[in-house]
Records
---
Amino acid sequence: KEKIFKEGFFIKSLLYKEPHSNKALKRFNTFSQIQKYGIFPESHIEVGNKSLVIKQKEVSPKKLSSIPPNKAFAISKDFIFRIQQAWDDGFVHGDINRRNIFCDANGLSLYDFEPYLEIIQNGRFCLLATKPYLCPNDFNNKKITKSTDEIGLSCFLNWFCLDRKTPPIKYCQKTLLPKKEVMTKEILSKFL
């Protein structure tokens, strides 16, 4: 019997009123297209009159810290290849971090797909990303890009494969952000 994880977004004020509706629908179209890369669990999106529901097949993830670094390195290479394909197709997750990555029999995958990366909430513009991993240029330009994904992924990979003693958030704040472009390229190049 298949269990379904449901994450409901009651966003009638955002999804069905301009200017947000086209952004959300375009993002969902991209999400559907990148399913072929397997970076999310098997997913299905249902758009109703007043709600949006993402159904994802439930997985039984392994505890990431229980995976030895040498095995972590091997499974990360495949994940990076798949996520780069999604990036090439224009997809940005916007919140890649340790909490949103899991490992099951199929390797590493992502959770926490959001219908919007930028919204106007209570009259204020907001970027929907975990702040420590938000690229400073994205913050300044008020648009989440692949750069934010690269920062989150680099911090995760540093912890998962290279340095289990330094939590990703501390690595991000003390090491990566001061030299963001150099450090993300350096880390990601180890897996290519």
---
Amino acid sequence: WKRMLSDFLNRRILPFYSFSSFLGNDWFSSKAYYVTGDILMPLVALFPDVETGLLWIEGWLLIILAGYFFWQFLYAFDPDGDPKVYLCASLLYSFSGTSALSIGQYMFMRAYVQVPLVFLAVEHFRTRGKAAPFLLVSAVQFLNLYYYAFMVSEFLLLYVPFTYYYHGTKLRSRAFLKLLGRLVVTYLSGLL
């Protein structure tokens, strides 16, 4: 990533294809999982003397964002719940073993931040009927975490019917399929 950024800035070579890359010559496919989603990486690359410190700051920022977005998801899932329980659950989510193992592996930390965002977007779709947040989160998820996004997609097949059933939404099968169709089209639009 740094070499391609340097080549772009110094020699005006576009960073879309690299035949020396170990994953092939398609830059987007090979790098999508590792670096393209790290919004802060170009900023960190500007300060090579303090790069390690900035990456640690980024790691802690991702942990804080993971907890915050998980709290937002819990509140959207059950607005009448106890905020203390949400706080405890968010802290447990933020500092769980998976989070501790992911420190220094920013590709996994980004996934840790975005999973609650995906479910939060589903809850906003369920309660407000607005597809824009789900479209945005889907697009960002596929840009940042190409492979991980497919696992989240499979989990959504279980989560969406669960949340509608849990909240007692009375939908006939035809209306539910129409709603799911709208959600799938929105999700595929985010993929494209």
---
Amino acid sequence: SVGGFYSSTFSINSAGSGATGHSLSFDGDDDYVSTGIPYTDLLGADSISISVSFKWLSEDSDGGPSTAGIISNGSSVDGHQLELNINNNGDKKLSLYWADGSTPGSPNMQSSFMDHLIIDFNTWYNVNVVLYDNSVRWYIDDELIDTDYVVFTTLGFYQETVVPDLNIGRGNRVYDTYFNGLIDDLKISVST
């Protein structure tokens, strides 16, 4: 069990509007949700699945980074572990970053990009990304879209001072990496 839950660390979903429920709405300026889930609840996982429905409304136009965090516990100053974001380098694609347990103490993160799909504005996407056994599998509407072969042994962490708790709607805490859109039906499952 992780964080008192068996395999499922976190989930949001309510009946109502949105992809499958009352979605969380983010303005892209400074909105985010702190889950209170510490990195230690994910540490050592040898399988991670993140599923989420989202609608991206616009990219950052204030001159800062174009990356928009969907879920992350990262800070390039303090420490990091895991981040799912969109529009890294302005490419309108999803990307996953993680600290691998095989490189303890390294500030470098491993990464995977969903290369076969450009994310459009004002469209709902149902995504599942699975990090397991040296691979990342990207699914849209339960259909496998892309597989990357990567370095993944277990989920590790990098820490200068502290690894932040898991946040929704924000990426790296040092930069302006807020999400502008709607996020719904978010689930993270881990196993060790």
---
Amino acid sequence: VLSESLASAVLCKNTSAVDILLAKGAKPDVHCLISAAQSDDVEIFKNFLDHGLDPNVPVPEPSWEDGYNYGWDEDSTALSVSIRNRSRGAFLVLRAQGFISNLAHQPAGFISALIAACQIGDSTLVEQLLSLPNLPRKQARIGEALEAAIEENQHHIIGQLLSVGVKPTIRCLELAIQNQQLTVVKLLANYM
């Protein structure tokens, strides 16, 4: 209960409540770290990283009976939330501490970060992620990055993904048709 309350206090940027809960023994968990990334509270974010929390670990299902739904996808990580919410402070901390380059060894975190970068149309970050050594191109979920780019109308990202060998799925084609993106439909058809 204390950790859940801590995550909520961080998300609300209530530093007094955070201090009280930490003093009462609340242990920061992944939910707390993601809350700090979402609120872009760099000081608290660094503090939680110092507790050994990994920002590339997906959010676990709530273990409490009436767990609060933070609105995160089941595969959200602190890194992907910092990207998606454009939490520059948290993102810069993660980049400086090497967590982006570590994604090559954490497939779940890699996909989550790639999808987030595709959603917001950050072509520089997409390029950086796609250039990681041992890029897990064969991962079953890598097509979701292409789907995210199509859903968000990120044409430049679609081209980037296709150029490195990400294969479009039927779902990609369906999304482009539903969104009446005829140029994208033609492009995807060339890669199917």
